[in-house]
Amino acid sequence: MAFSDLSEGKKATIAIGFSVAITLIAFELFAWVFVGYRLGYRFTPFYYSPPVSADPCEQWILDLQLGDIHDASAGCSVSDSVYENGFVRYTHATKPHPTVVVTLGGSTTDGLLEHELGHTWPYWLSRLGSEGGNRELLVLNGGTGGFSSSRELRKLQRDVLLLDPPPEIVISLNAINDTPAYDGRMELSIPYYNERQLRVLNGERSASGSFLPNSQLLVYRLIDRIIRSLTAARRGEAVKPIQFELDPRFEKTLPRARFKTKGELWKFNVTTMHAISKAIGAKYLVFVQPTMGLKSEKVESMSANDKKLYGQIDQHYFADINKTYDEIRPLCREFDFCVDISELLKYDGHDLYHDPRHPNARGNRIIAERVLKELSDRGYRSAASK
Fold first, then answer.
1. For the chain, what is the radius of gyration of the CA atoms?
2. Domain ranges of the chain
3. 77-180+261-377 carries CATH number 3.40.710.10
4. Most confident of the ranges 49-53, 81-85, 88-92, 198-202
5. Is the Cβ–Cβ distance between 31 and 215 less than 8 Å?
6. N or C, which end of the chain is more exposed by having fewer CB within 10 Å?
7. Which residues pair with 383 in a beta bridge?
8. Is the pLDDT assigned to residue 41 strictly greater than 60?
């Protein structure tokens, strides 16, 4: 039946339905732009469902204490290891009574990113550490993509303390994720909740799995703005711009830190991890990690691929990472448990990096070899029992 043959009532119904659909789509497009650019939320399609990665190692869930962590139920499998209870346990050690080592860090350390980044330095630490005449190393890798030193401390306080037997050595590789505002705008006053965790505490809704998610979020925020405007008018106060604000209940309840810089926070985190490790009978070492973009680099000695990666570095990132390292490096020299290896990866015409932030498998092996040397030099590795 042609449209012209329909009754006037049906034509009107179709026209109204079409107009409503166009209006909803137009409003969703507007909300899509507003939510992304003004409110700082991730863009989502009109009908949003969580993306399913082909790689089970890229499945994430929100841990209210640690932030985003890997979903162990996704069935991720990487070389010579088992992932369980928040740790990648490497299987290179086969003899009785190995030295138990826990590694902490961000994505450079993360054992489940092997498919993307290649063998990580804890993998090489386990593999190389189980060779030769010393006690084998049983490496439990707790590194997780996105973790700063603040997240590492939480991981140590909660997960590492539950290990049985406890580790004999705890190793952190960090600094790159300790740049300003990495964990959110409130990181210096509420350092152990990143902004995503604080939004959950606030009770902010997620539009995941719902129709027109950006429109829903925008309407929700507009209603919140109206309520805050009415409240401010009643109190005779000015209305603050739309941005993340902590719920007044938590504003008054959560304890506040008084760190002035991320370097101060990093120093507190690593000294606290050192103290906790000592309390459980473990040796603690923190290594200031190498990364691309530091001022001391000799670009002319880079491989063609590394030069290409270097050219991708944003100038704002270049400034942030150098500011962070300029503050952390002198702090590292204050502690005998801190080792600065930020200039370890020397360019020699061969590829060292997977991307501007992460070494490739060759670079990771160099890091592991340096860590093993440090353990041996300090006498933290003992000879194998006969």
1. 25
2. 77-180+261-377
3. no
4. 88-92
5. yes
6. C
7. 134
8. no
